[in-house]
Amino acid sequence: MHSESAASSPPRINLVDPELYAHGDPFEQWRWLRANEPVYWHPPTELPGFWALTRYDDVRAAYRDAETFSSARGILLRPADHGEDPGGGRTLALTDPPRHRQLRGLVDEWFALRSVRGFEPEMTEVARRVVDEALERGSCDFVADIAARVPLYVICNMMGVPSSDWDRLFTLTSQAFGAGDPATQRFAHLEIMGYFEELQAEKADDPSDDLVSILATATIDGSPLSPEDVILNCDNLLVGGTENTRIAAAGGMLAFLEHPGQWQALVEDPGLLPSAVEEVLRWTSTATHILRTAVRPVEIGGRRIEAGDRVTFWLPSANRDESVFDAPDTFDIRRKPNRHLALGFGEHFCLGSVLARAELRILYHELLHRSIRVEPDGEATRLRSIVVNGPERLPVKLTEGAAARP
Ligand code: HEM
User: Fold this and answer.
1) Between 113-137 and 353-369, two packed helices, what is the crossing angle to 10 degrees?
2) Please, are residues 288 and 387 in contact by the beta-carbon 8 Å criterion?
3) Which CDD domains match (predicted)?
4) How far, CA to CA in Å, does 24 sit from each of 229, 257, 280?
């Protein structure tokens, strides 16, 4: 039920202040919106105005209707003076059907269950190496030293990036999507695009069995993808493949540190790992908002949305909707059912969902089966972003075989 009590003292609503996610409590605003204004017109700030959907059912219904809610004009809020997203109409995430299906059809086999199973031995090896290195150091940042490395190395491997370049791409992605200054971020992002420009040219001339070769040699309706389209899609895969998994894996670890009984339950029954991974996904909901643009007038919850309006889905809010989840603010690794929307829904449902789930499972399994004790070793900080939310740094100390609890 959407509780009445949440109506008593309306908080000031501003969902687009990055400080809210670094130091504030966005759940207070989301709870109030779900109860009182579930289809909320968010006035313009430095960003143009937009509709904010915060209830599970509204988000799911809009997700289901890709005919009305287009991705081609961008899936993240951006200031009007930044212009349209350069990937609009070109990358997997930023195209509408029918082109979206055609693009996705080029690569989706690589992300299917069978294919991901084939990568599991390599993923386990990567997780082991990363955890070994962290153990040697004793103290480390769980985000940068553990959670970030597993997904980055795995997606680089799938894309056909030579292993000698993985550390370079690791540094560049950390700079491009880390907390540094905007100039460093832009420079690192350009370097990544430059890297893929060279790689796609090499793979176009001499293709092998990897994702970049597939994109570089693909045709849609008889026409090859342009080099720019290949580069933008490589960027989409690299960012999609690393950012959310890093934050979810670290956010999940933080949740276990805050709820040691839940880790203990996993130690006692590792069979709970798959449902624990689902709860980590729901709990962390690292993709904060997803944007669509209405291409025709539509009504949601009695509010009329016009063609051209921006409509945002606030996934962490939908995943704590009290009308869908029992005790939504409880971290419960046994939760069933757990039909969260952390990986999206419908047409653009996360391409890497099977991979992401496997990466989280394998990483936690590595810690569990070696009885590695993980303890906080300093203050965790949160990302200052309206796009992704979760830990920016999570200083921890790792000790092997010391105890089962984190
Ligand atoms: C915990 C980890 C992850 C989370 C929370 C996550 C979340 C999401 C969400 C919410 C969407 C939907 C975007 C939309 O509705 O427009 C999405 C799409 C996507 N994700 Fe993930 N993701 C994760 C891991 C991955 C991984 C490992 C990959 C690997 C390549 C990946 C690649 C993609 C791609 C390419 C899309 C666009 C799919 C499309 O538009 O058809 N993601 N992801």
Assistant:
1) 40
2) yes
3) CYP142-like (cd11033)
4) 38, 20, 21
Does any ligand 1 atom lie closer than 6 A to the CB of residue 318?
Answer: no
Domains and CATH numbers, the chain: 15-399 (1.10.630.10)
Q: Could you tell me the two tokens for 272?
A: 């709970």
Q: In angstroms, what is the span from residue 3 Cα to ligand 1's centroid?
A: 32
* Model confidence band, residue 86 (pLDDT cutoffs 50, 70, 90): confident
H or E segment at 313? Answer: strand 310-314
Query: Is pLDDT above 50 for 94?
Result: yes
Query: What average pLDDT score do residues 312-335 get?
Result: 98
Residue 371 pLDDT exceeds 80: yes
**Percentage of the chain with pLDDT > 70?**
96
List of residues 6+ apart from 327 with CB closer than 8 A: none
pLDDT interval class at 3 (50, 70, 90)? very low
Burial environment of residue 25 by CB neighbours within 10 A (0 to 12, 13 to 18, 19 or more): exposed
Judge if the beta carbon of residue 245 lies within 6 A of ligand 1. Answer: yes
Residue 93 CA to ligand 1 centre (angstroms): 8
Atom of ligand 1 nearest to the CA of 347: 41
**Residues listed for the chain:** 406
Please report the pLDDT score of residue 405 as a whole number: 52
How many helices (H) and strands (E) the chain has is answered by 14, 14
Angle at 285 between CA 93 and CA 155, to 5 degrees: 50
In DSSP notation, 124-161 reads HHHHHHHHHHHHHHSEEEIIIIIITHHHHHHHHHHHT-
Structure confidence by residue, pLDDT tens digits, 212-242: 999 999 999 999 999 999 999 999 999 989 9
Q: Which of 96-100, 174-178, 287-291 is the least confident region?
A: 174-178
Ligand 1 pocket check for 344: Cβ under 6 Å: yes
Verify whether ligand 1 is closer than 6 Å to residue 305 (CB atom).
Answer: no
pLDDT band at 5 (very low <50, low <70, confident <90, very high): very low
Considering only CA atoms, which of 126, 147, 121 is closest in space to residue 374? 147
Spacing, Cα 302 to ligand 1 middle (Å)? 30
Q: Lay out the sheet containing 373-376: strands in order across.
A: 139-141, 395-399, 373-376
